[in-house]
Amino acid sequence: MKASGFIISKMNMEEKKEPQQPQQPPVLDQLKEYVETRIQLGKYKAIEKSSSVAASLVTDVVAAVCGVLFLLFFFITLALLLGSVLGAAWKGFGIVTLLYLIIAFVVIKMKPVIQKSIINLLINKIFK
Fold this sequence. Notes:
The chain is an all-alpha fold. 88% of the residues lie in helices and 0% in strands.
């Protein structure tokens, strides 16, 4: 009888146990999940930033190409006008060529300033 009493009391103890709460994942698993989430967030932020910078640069390049085309046609028109006024097309194109030469010398002299401006522009677009 002793054995059966032990079994009965053990069964009574099992019935009295409270329902267990769901187990929390171990701290290391939580930390691993947190790190993976942060890495994924970093990737998404990098993708967002790089696509924003690329879109901005593309629009700037398109604007620059339009500006260059404008200047090209402006100077061709100026050359034709000067050629008409001076009586010979080659004289108008010669004067415009001298203007291009002067612009080239100015750009060469201001190269460090122009480079700094471009670098600052790119940095501002990246950290915007």
